[in-house]
Specification:
Blueprint: E1 9-13, E2 16-24, H1 32-44, H2 51-59, E3 69-75, E4 78-86, E5 99-105, H3 114-128, E6 133-138, H4 143-148, E7 152-158, E8 163-169
Length: 171
């Protein structure tokens, strides 16, 4: 399987240099636990799910291209952030697929282009699978960020989390 390290970026924000590469998590198994931890703490733990359920999901990620997948941003093996490519990500909209989900960037790396690079990497992978559209859900406070990246708001206030649903078409 080819690596996805070619998504690497060097960004300069406020005079600080931020270096990172993006790769399939399968190439960095040492980062699996921290990736699972971030997903669990941000989205699963608040709903009463056990960490082991998230870890089981990460342990079962396929080694071959396809959904689901996890890309991790790292700086020489240090976790910077991660994103998932998923078949479904919103129980209320099972007919929509595929999804970019569980985007996480460590606080010290936020507002420096890491999230944008992770989302773009996930979209490249999804569109390489010949999907013509991808979906994403987020809280309303993230609406401007995603719309500025070219996502189109298609629905508001979905489910218990009152989430926005976005779509983006393949270029």
């Amino acid at each position: 399987m080819e690596t996805r390290q070619g998504y690497g970026c060097e960004l300069y924000a406020g005079g600080a240099e931020v270096k990172f590469e993006i790769a399939n998590l399968n190439y960095f198994p040492d980062l699996k636990h921290i990736s699972a931890d971030r997903v669990w703490n941000a989205w699963w733990r608040p709903h009463g799910h056990l960490f082991q359920a998230v870890m089981d999901f990460f342990d079962e990620l396929p080694e071959m291209p396809g959904l689901p997948f996890c890309f991790v941003a790292h700086d020489d093996g240090k976790y910077v952030g991660s994103v998932l490519g998923l078949v479904t990500d919103l129980d209320e909209r099972p007919e929509l697929s595929p999804w970019v989900g569980a985007l996480w960037v460590e606080p010290e790396f936020r507002r420096q282009g890491v999230a944008t690079a992770l989302v773009k990497a996930a979209l490249v992978e999804i569109f390489a699978m010949e999907h013509e559209v991808a979906f994403l859900c987020a809280t309303a406070e993230k609406r401007d960020m995603y719309q500025n990246q070219g996502w189109h708001l298609i629905e508001e206030n979905v489910g218990d989390g009152a989430l926005d649903v976005f779509e983006v078409n393949s270029p």
